[in-house]
Amino acid sequence: MVRFIHGTTTVGLVVRDAVILAADKRASAGYYIAHKTVRKIVKIDDHIAMTISGLVADAQILASILSYLARSYKISTGVPIPVRNLVSYLALLLNSTKYYPYIVQLLVGGYDTRPVLYSVEWFGDYTEEQYAVTGSGSPVAVGLLETHYRRDMSIEEGIKLAVDAVRASIRRDVFTGEAVDVAVITKEGIKIMTYKV
């Protein structure tokens, strides 16, 4: 059975001192709920994480390649890979497979000299965003973000908004469910938490 995470909701937003990523925990294959405890936030390096939406196998191989690249960069240069460099490499990977594309929609968040968030599409298009959403529940989640997002939010306010956006999608989207994982990325590193619905 091919397992999909296209029926999902992932959220990313940049606040005053951090990037916050949030995602539900349900994986579906068509209308079948394949798993209820999937981690859709993947730690790539000590200062970069990624949300996944799409084919699980595609997302897992991309996360493995990016983790390897981040470690290799750190070993060869002595410094962590800049978030934009990693996203540019990811875009090249996605763009080089047009005949057999990776079926993914990704959010990459990280902290270099400041918090940054990138939305990355199937064929490697990427844009830096203040907030972004992916997945089948994204129409509901983006409505909350557009209404309540402020760039100067505190980390606590950002977490609450991200969790509320995913919870709203859980109530309205049959493919989104279970609980909400949240990653907070600051200059100190990444902290991942789970919130009940």
Q: Could you list some keywords that capture this structure?
A:
197 residues; alpha+beta; Glutamine Phosphoribosylpyrophosphate, subunit 1, domain 1; five-stranded antiparallel β-sheet; 4 helices; 12 strands
Q: How would you describe what is shown here?
A:
It is globular, with a radius of gyration of 16 Å. Residues about 1-5 have low confidence and may be disordered. α1 packs across α2. β5 and β6 form a beta hairpin. It has a single domain, classed as Glutamine Phosphoribosylpyrophosphate, subunit 1, domain 1. It has a five-stranded antiparallel sheet with strand order 10-1-2-11-12, with helices on one face. A five-stranded antiparallel sheet has the order 5-6-7-8-9, with helices on one face. Helices cover about 30% and strands about 35% of the residues. The protein is an alpha+beta fold and about 200 residues long. The protein is built from four helices and twelve strands.
What does this entry show, briefly?
Helix content is 32%, strand content 35%. It has 197 residues and is α+β, with helices and mostly antiparallel strands. It has a single domain (10-196), classed as 4-Layer Sandwich (Glutamine Phosphoribosylpyrophosphate, subunit 1, domain 1).
